[in-house]
Design goal:
Elements: H1 9-24, H2 29-38, H3 51-63, H4 67-79, H5 88-104, H6 109-118, H7 131-141
Helix pairs in contact: 1-2, 1-3, 1-4, 2-3, 3-4, 5-7, 6-7
Length: about 160
């Protein structure tokens, strides 16, 4: 068809990997880019795999008629609508929010997981929010031993 752009052959392999990561592992665009970089997959211009670069590759495949690329793009709408982008400042903002819910407001960890899932917040790996995911965030952002499972904390005495 006239007007359709077909991805270059070298980009076709990258697009296949992107679709596999998005649909198979349900990963956010940013995590897909990180995986591609870790695997040494080159970008079209030799730069980094930014979320926009991953999205652009999917758009090229969609324009060429790849229905799986459309499905991979649609996944983003649900997964990252309210997601945190993965930068250190935003990750610490999320960790602070989880810590506040758990330690100050005394919300149990399984309920924190439900809140974040209902809001559409993406996990770092693109999976579901679970009590163990919340516990992992708390253990990496809080001093060891301060929190116990399900949000029950023991604070050091005065």
């Amino acid at each position: 068809m006239a007007g359709q752009r077909t991805p270059a052959p070298y980009l076709r392999e990258a697009i296949e990997r992107i679709i596999e990561l998005r649909l198979g592992e349900r990963l956010p665009l940013e995590t897909v880019g990180e995986r591609l970089e870790a695997e040494g997959v080159p970008t079209p211009r030799g730069g980094r795999w930014w979320p926009a670069t991953v999205r652009h590759a999917l758009l090229l495949a969609e324009q060429a008629g790849d229905a799986r690329a459309r499905a991979a793009l649609d996944l983003k709408l649900h997964r990252q609508r309210h997601g945190y982008r993965g930068t250190r400042s935003v990750e610490s903002e999320l960790a602070a929010r989880i810590s506040t819910l758990s330690e100050i407001e005394r919300v149990p960890q399984h309920e924190i997981a439900e809140i974040l899932a209902d809001e559409g917040v993406a996990t770092a790996r693109g999976g579901r929010w679970r009590q163990s995911t919340v516990q992992s965030v708390l253990s990496t952002s809080s001093p060891a031993g301060q929190l116990q499972p399900d949000g029950e904390g023991s604070r050091p005495g005065p």
